[in-house]
From TrEMBL:
Residues 56-348 form the PBP domain. Gene3D superfamilies: Periplasmic binding protein-like II. The lineage of its organism: Bacteria, Bacillati, Actinomycetota, Actinomycetes, Kitasatosporales. SUPFAM superfamilies: Periplasmic binding protein-like II (SSF53850). Belongs to the PstS family. It comes from the Bacteria. This is Phosphate-binding protein. It comes from Streptomyces antimicrobicus.
Amino acid sequence: MKLQRKNMLRASALGALVVSGALVLTACGSDDNTKGPDGSTKPSAAAAGDIKCDDAKGKLLASGSSAQKNAVDLWIKNYMAVCSGVEVNYKSSSSGEGIVAFNQGTVGFAGSDSALKPEQVEDSKKICTGGQGINLPMVGGPIAIGFNVNGVDKLTLDAPTLAAIFNDKIKKWDDEAIKKLNPGVNLPPTAIQAFHRSEDSGTTENLGKYLKATAGDQWTYEAAKKWPAPGGQAASGSAGVAAQVKQVDGAIGYFELSYASSQGIKTVDINTGAAAPVAATPENASKAIAAAKIAGTGSDLALKLDYATKAEGAYPIVLVTYEVVCDKGNKAETLPAVKSFLNYTASDAGQKILSENGYAPIPAEINKKVREVIATLG
């Protein structure tokens, strides 16, 4: 009887854990996993169905975008549970650092929140023998504007006001421009503490593209990975910016939605000129990303996004993270693992993980082309 009661209590506890895990988005777990007989975490049949190890083996190093870290962590967890002969190690740093590592030949692929620039493609030819670096869109999602203002639970901003905040022109939360966008909200005279990324970041560049396209003369800077505006405070990585916003009263910053979701950080609704302000959700980001066009040529699938969209329910501050790989000239010892792992991330099961964890899947028509290109990597 004691043993039966102990097992019942253990089952109850495990059930509670599963329920709580389904409600909280984290960087290190997936609700689509089950315990194997040896106690190790294994992906369910649904998660593992699209994982094919083929000839993959050994160690696969990758680095870059912190925007996709939470998604990549889940992908790696599921993939390595099936392909036990492969060790995938993704170093979350920044898009800029990932591309540098790729062009130095120290990683099998890099994650970047912006497509390779012409000079970076040229550099890649030294590593990709007989080929060059190409962009494979793999992760979509909203760039959330997180805020922490005591007593304020809901906040709407538009592009000019957001630009003025990050450009150090609006300094208090009860500024008239903010009050006008938030009638009925009791905004305190708290000083605004704006946080941005300290290192070169594709997330910074995508926010810059949005502000450049929509904020008029409030944002005159060209979009770049390096933060361009005066003032504000710097923090390292999306995780660093999110941590500062969470703990500092009066703070505002930008990071991928999964960081806000996992830490309970409130996010800004964006007034785009549509009938109603738009919240940062995977579904709303998908509406914006679905209108993207392929701007790359050949095997390169770089996308052109419409940051100035006014479509109903389309959240405009979005990014697409690319996996940067050689189209030809990949190292023979890592090519099978690169193809096997990316085939999984681009699969239906791999993309389904995105929508479950604060990201947006790549539109099906584009994702079909991604899979076709992966098959041709050499």
